Amino acid sequence: MNFDTLKAPEGDIKVFFIGHGTLYFENNNQVIHVDPWSQLGDYNQIPKADIILITHDHPDHLDPAVIDQISKNNTVIISPQIVFDKIKKGKVLANGESLTEKGIKIEAVPAYNNSQGREMFHPKGAGNGYILNLAGMRIYIAGDTEDIPEMSRISQIDVAFLPMNQPYTMLPQQLKKAALTIKPKVLYPYHYGETDTSELLEIMKDQPSIEVRIRALQ
Question: What CA–CA distance (Å, rounded) separates 165 from 201?
């Protein structure tokens, strides 16, 4: 399976790119899944979760059957209220809230559409992005969002996963604006569908302090 190794102060983090907006991380024998979706991977071959993060309730992000499949007795599920109302389990984090589970601080941040005519795709307050404070790194997983004003309050990010599929999330130009606001050391565009990633690489050439990594996503 396609993965990268992030060199973190407190031990390597492996990030696995299952596809679309679906990822999982391994660090120090802990596994953190983000928006697991059974259409993208064989979850019989994928490690079970210590923590599951769900960003919002769209079916390409919320798959209750696979959540059950990868859950152990002590798995912690974290989601916004709209997801909890559907699966009836886990812990709710609203935008701006945080908690610490299994030694990992998890911050929920806003994720929504704010362009005229797109607001209905991801309404403000319904979904979460997440910041993982993992192994001495801060990893921002943006969820389905545009370059919203609240990103100006997100700081000290080592690695950012930003979505790039129009019209539901960001255009390449919007993603660049978001990246310049957040200033991650490493930027992964994800959830990019059929968007031409070469356009992002071209417009980010003038930002050498941000390493852009393109990885194959279904």
Answer: 15
